[in-house]
């Protein structure tokens, strides 16, 4: 009996994954190496500092902690520049309709994102008021695949983990949902999201029968 749905933000509500990719690629190029979309899969859902570690490893680059903070800040400034131009037109297809259908069926809805830029994005797409709870990168101490973000979401909504369905576009996010004991719906490629309970190709396939299993 499903009582709540928890949505990842980047790559599920909006396609900010492409902006994260552009900003990381710019940083990699500046450091003298290439960064492909395939490499970027490993960064999805992962925190900013952990993403940087993965990127530096790819480029075989070793720097001190202070430099790491500076590089992460640089990437975030580029990323913020890209997302500053966002508006409602960037909400992915059927997302708003689906959330309204859930609300009409008395299902609670929350955001469970690793991003510290969550509120900026939700405000620019005017969706802040859509959610009963918002758990973002500022509220968590352990990033996905740790279940913390989704467990805090369930707690804030007052439901049990096994009454929640999570919608995720990242491998780390599907793992986090499964670690939380929740039903995980992957949005994207079956090859990448193989641990999900169900995979849909894109948000056009968001319908109520997904949660009536
Ligand atoms: P920020 P999600 C994640 O958001 C992104 O998928 C990931 O690529 C990013 O590094 C992480 O947020 C941190 O984002 O730098 O904005 O704090 O997919 O969990 O909504
Ligand atoms: Mg995501």
UniProtKB/TrEMBL annotation:
Gene Ontology MF annotations: beta-phosphoglucomutase activity; magnesium ion binding
Positions annotated to bind substrate: 8-10, 24, 43-48, 51, 75, 113-117, 144
Free-text comment on the cofactor: Binds 2 magnesium ions per subunit.
Family matches, as InterPro entries: B-phosphoglucomutase_hydrolase (IPR010976), Beta-PGM (IPR010972), Beta-PGM-like (IPR051600), HAD-like_sf (IPR036412), HAD-SF_hydro_IA (IPR006439), HAD_2 (IPR041492), HAD_sf (IPR023214), PGP-like_dom2 (IPR023198)
Record-annotated site: Important for catalytic activity and assists the phosphoryl transfer reaction to Asp8 by balancing charge and orienting the reacting groups: 113, 144
Keyword Isomerase: yes
Active site: 8 (proton donor/acceptor), 10 (proton donor/acceptor)
Organism superkingdom: Bacteria
Annotated EC: 5.4.2.6
UniProt: Mg(2+) binding residues: 8, 10, 168-169
Keyword Magnesium in annotation: yes
PANTHER family, alphabetized: 6-PHOSPHOGLUCONATE PHOSPHATASE, HEXITOL PHOSPHATASE B
Requisite cofactors: Mg(2+)
Annotated keywords: Carbohydrate metabolism, Isomerase, Magnesium, Metal-binding, Phosphoprotein
Lineage of origin: Bacteria, Bacillati, Bacillota, Tissierellia, Tissierellales
Family: Belongs to the HAD-like hydrolase superfamily. CbbY/CbbZ/Gph/YieH family.
Recorded catalytic activity of this chain's protein: beta-D-glucose 1-phosphate = beta-D-glucose 6-phosphate
Biological process, per Gene Ontology: carbohydrate metabolic process
Protein known as: Beta-phosphoglucomutase
